[in-house]
Amino acid sequence: MTIRKAKKSDVFFIVKMLADDELGKKREQFEDPLPQVYYQAFETIDQDPHQELMVVEENKEVIGVFQLTFIPYLTYQGGIRAQIEGVRIRKDYRGKGLGQKMFEWAIARSQEKGAHLLQLTTDKKRPEALRFYEKMGFVASHEGMKLHF
Fold first, then answer.
1. In which element (H, E) is residue 51 found?
2. Per mean pLDDT, which range of 76-80, 129-133, 134-138, 144-148 is the poorest?
3. What does pTM read for this prediction?
4. Where are the domains of the chain?
5. Among 10, 50, 67, 72, which has the minimal tally of Cβ within 10 Å of its Cβ?
6. What is residue 36's three-state secondary structure?
7. Is 116 left (phi over 0), alpha (psi -120 to 50) or beta?
């Protein structure tokens, strides 16, 4: 298993994973060829020094993805908060410990960047993800809210 920065050529496989569940099917438009908006989003992420879109590769195939965002802010004496989003593992690779390795890598990377915490959100419709995050040491310490436009 290798974790590396995503390349434009990975976008198709990333979107395929993002769309491969009940919630993702409603949000994503996975088709071949992919809509151009995904490649435009990739370019925006790739050019932002506070963003790291990472893929997990095994046998030269993309089998996982996550995005780390490093948020500088004034609280915590000018601290950095890391956020992990878009975490997916290809269905045929789930249950093999890859998620734990991904998170161990993301935690180490966040610490390396000087972040004082790593945060995430998870949809309440994904109880198995919630259990996994709790097993990894995450605590539901705050109440999250969203305003969709």
1. strand 51-58
2. 144-148
3. 0.92
4. 2-135
5. 72
6. helix
7. alpha
